[in-house]
Specification:
Blueprint (H helix, E strand, L loop, with lengths): L1 H23 L5 H26 L1 H5 L2 H33 L1
Helix pairs in contact: 1-2, 1-4, 2-4
């Protein structure tokens, strides 16, 4: 259960952060969108992890916080690769045009 909760929370936070980055790409708010996505991706799992530690001791003792760290880092690496690829393609298109 701890693994499922951590994976779901971290993956959803990463997907929403990617969506925010994509929506602001190429606009005047691109930097704000990127920083907002970092804040969202970081704070959502952290806040839910702390809430679980207060509300559900069994889940906390099962190691949910450690699994949050594992899935956070995995989602961070994946999201970074996707964002750099998308931004690199955008720069290639702008250079050609």
């Amino acid at each position: 259960m701890a693994v499922a909760v951590a994976a779901t929370v971290c993956c959803l936070a990463a997907i929403i952060a990617l969506f925010l980055t994509e929506r602001t790409r190429g606009s005047l708010n691109a930097i704000s969108g990127l920083l907002g996505s970092v804040l969202l991706r970081t704070m959502v799992p952290l806040a839910i992890g702390f809430a679980i530690s207060r509300v559900n001791r069994e889940l906390f003792e099962a190691g949910v916080f450690g699994w949050f760290v594992v899935y956070y880092l995995g989602c961070l690496a994946t999201e970074t690769l996707i964002v750099t690829r998308v931004l690199g393609q955008q720069q290639d298109v702008e250079a050609e045009g």
